[in-house]
Write a structure and sequence with these properties.
two-stranded antiparallel ribbon; four-stranded mixed beta sheet; globular; alpha+beta; single chain
Length: 162
């Protein structure tokens, strides 16, 4: 699981909004600068222990975590801004990190992070995933660029972000 990515993002794959954002980032990341790590994947704990022992799964599920190429762990909107910057869209998130807006944005982020499943339900209509944390199944999981997955009925789902 070595990666040349400049940032590894540890995200909640059971959150429809989070998954959509990661899908969008993957689509824009044509240079492979971002590695995505789904904390909801069945093998997440084993992979964290083996490759990212400095990442606490519970804490990373509570607040977005990222790890830079040099091993520095960043959290919350710092991860968001770095990820969007790496795909050339940092101007969209830069105001969230400005000196006077960052403390306010960080407070709102913490409120959002704690209610992300409910907010996802309201914005996406995916109430099942929002109110039953483990019910997202593979519908929220982001397949690797070269991987296809199957839904519960065995139908093959192709990675849309190739």
């Amino acid at each position: 699981m070595t990666s040349d990515a400049q940032l590894t993002v540890f995200f909640d794959g059971n959150c429809p909004l989070c998954s959509r954002e990661m899908q969008h980032l993957r689509k824009l990341d044509t240079n492979g600068r971002i590695a995505l790590f789904d904390l909801a994947s069945p093998d997440a704990e084993a992979l964290l222990a083996a490759h990212h022992p400095d990442i606490n799964a519970v804490e990373a599920d509570r607040i977005l975590h990222g790890k830079t190429q040099d091993g520095r762990v960043i959290k919350g909107l710092d991860v968001t801004h770095m990820a969007w910057s790496l795909v050339g869209k940092g101007h969209l998130t830069a105001p969230l990190r400005w000196r006077f807006t960052a403390p306010i944005a960080d407070r709102f982020y913490l409120l959002f992070a704690g209610q992300r499943h409910r907010i996802s339900a309201l914005l996406t209509g995916n109430f099942k995933a929002a109110f039953s944390p483990n019910s997202c199944n593979d519908g929220c999981r982001i397949p690797a660029r070269d991987q296809n997955v199957q839904d519960k009925r065995g139908n093959e789902l192709h990675a849309r972000n190739r």
